[in-house]
Write a structure and sequence with these properties.
There is one protein chain. By secondary structure, the protein is of the alpha/beta class. The chain has one domain: Ribose 5-phosphate Isomerase B, Chain: A, CATH 3.40.1400. 50% of the residues lie in helices and 16% in strands. The protein has a five-stranded parallel sheet, with helices on both faces. α2 crosses α3. The longest helix is centred in the C-terminal third of the chain and has 15 residues. The protein is globular. The chain binds D-ribose.
């Protein structure tokens, strides 16, 4: 599975931790930056990872900024992206099961390393339940395609 990663300076340290974890677990990585703690604009990076997922170049994306909010708002502007901001394992499991989220957002200044990696694991291993949840995400896509 190929994972597109992106962050701003506020998410850089956590992005690096997630990257190391994913490589160790055998995932293929696309790192869309940023690559240092120098101040940048989260949109420029989040949108690159989101576009990689939307185009099929990557299977899923993980985006990180200080709070996770800026990158999640940005990623959700890309057609076909369902980005979920998760700071607990339950939400990570549920957003895969119910929303079939294809991008995960986290805040590097909000949660610690161990919780972040548990969230990543739960999210990547979670399966979409389909059924009534498919109908619900289809409504989002229909609306998105009208815009
Ligand atoms: C950067 O200081 C910070 O605003 C950004 O990382 C993020 O938290 C925005 O939503």
């Amino acid at each position: 599975m190929k994972i597109a990663l992106a962050c701003d300076h506020g998410g850089f340290e956590l992005k690096e931790i997630v990257k190391e974890y994913l490589i160790e677990k055998g995932y293929e990585i696309q790192d869309h930056g940023t690559y240092s703690l120098e101040s940048v604009d989260y949109f420029d990076y989040a949108v690159k990872a989101a576009e990689a997922v939307a185009s099929g170049e990557a299977d899923k994306g993980i985006v990180v900024c200080g709070t996770g909010i800026g990158v999640s708002i940005s990623a959700n502007k890309v057609k076909g992206i369902r980005c979920a901001l998760c700071h607990d394992v339950y939400s990570a499991e549920m957003t895969r099961a119910h929303n079939d989220s294809n991008v995960l957002a986290m805040g590097g200044r909000v949660i610690g390393k161990d919780l972040a990696l548990r969230i990543v694991k739960a999210w990547l291993e979670g399966e979409f339940e389909g059924g009534r949840h498919k109908r619900r995400i289809e409504k989002i896509a229909i609306y998105e395609n009208k815009c």
